Amino acid sequence: MNFYIAILLLEEKPSNSILQNILGVIVTVGIVSICVYYVLRYLESVYVKYKKKPYFIHFYPSIKELPSNLQVFIEENDFYNKLDKKRKRYFAHRAAVFLDDIRFVGREGLVINDFMRMQITMMVIQLTFGMRHYLLEYLNTIIIYPASFYSILNKTENIGEFNPRSKAMALSWKDFQKGNLHEDDGRNLGIHEITHAIHYNSIKNNNISSEIFYDTFLELEEYLGSIEIRKQIVDAKILREYAFTDKFEFIAVLIEVFMESPDDLKQKFPEIYAYVVQMLNFRYFED
Fold first, then answer.
1. pLDDT > 90 fraction of the chain, expressed in percent and rounded
2. Which of 231, 232, 239, 275 minimizes the C-alpha distance to 256?
3. Helix orientation angle between 208-223 and 2-51, rounded to the nearest 10 degrees
4. By CB count within 10 A, which of 75, 169, 210, 274 is most buried?
5. Quick one: angle between helices 114-127 and 247-260, nearest 10?
6. Whose CA is closest to 280, among 179, 202, 223?
7. Rounded CA gap, 44 and 56, in Å?
8. Which chain regions cross the lipid bilayer (predicted)?
9. Confidence class of residue 287 from pLDDT cuts 50, 70 and 90?
10. Helix, strand and coil in the chain, % to nearest 5
């Protein structure tokens, strides 16, 4: 009986040994992969420190196509039409992925159509086009009201708000459209609220896009610590008074001006303009 058990043990040993070898290989590959990732991540952080931009922005194993009924909308977008053929495909791909990732909800009887979804989507894609990580972790729902709405969160009548706890953004469609129609006035509801979402994501995440945005924001804060610079900004009246509510509103209003009147901002405050370019890695006004 003991002899029979010994034979069984000998027969089981090779199979156990093979299993252990397989597990050993898997663990080793996993550890090596993690080490390689963090080494590359560190090297990219060093690269960003000196070059002020990531290794790369666009890399997609496969390109997602927009349905033809949605493609017509981006072909009317001014920013999209300034891109080369390759970047146009990237823009359309990002729009298609974003639409799959985000839930649009209408309130107070508002029926959301393709035009509405695409107008908001294109604005998000444009603002994040210089970033590798363009899907915002703390945004998965966009709520659209016909006009201003009562905010349960703030207990006020609002035209837009970003709520990171519910990962939702609420917009007044009337005011969103007004911002798009009256360009160059430094007021754009969509840009403003999307910037809040980007800013919050940059604080909570540690990917390279968030790192660049947040670290540059801190550099800008330090630069704006000068009383003389702050006085120049106030005197120039390039930013509306709401910008001085707090640092979150300041950056949101600043990026409104940057996206709508880049030449004006660059001429009056070239240093601040350069900070925003770096923050968003948005160099398309330089082309």
1. 63
2. 239
3. 30
4. 169
5. 100
6. 202
7. 10
8. 18-40
9. low
10. 60, 10, 30
Q: Which 3 state secondary structure label does DSSP give 43?
A: helix
Angle at which helices 173-181 and 189-204 cross, to 10°: 110
Residue 260, CA atoms < 13 Å, CB-side half-sphere: 22
Rounded CA separation 278/285 (Å): 12
pTM: 0.84
- For the cut 60, the answer to whether the pLDDT of residue 9 exceeds it is no
Token code pair at residue 14: 């090779």
Name the token pair of 117: 């979804």
Instruction: For residue 141, give Cα distances in angstroms to 90, 136, 166, 232, 286.
Output: 23, 11, 8, 39, 33
Helix, strand, or coil (residue 135): coil
Q: What is the DSSP letter of 1?
A: -
- In this model, does residue 19 exceed pLDDT 90? no
Q: Is 111 buried (19+), middle (13-18) or exposed (0-12) by CB count in 10 A?
A: exposed
Angle among Cα 81, 82, 85 to the nearest 5 degrees reads 75
* H/E element, 230: helix 227-236
Supply 68's token pair. Answer: 């033809």
Of the candidates 286, 277, 284, which has an alpha carbon nearest to the alpha carbon of residue 53?
277
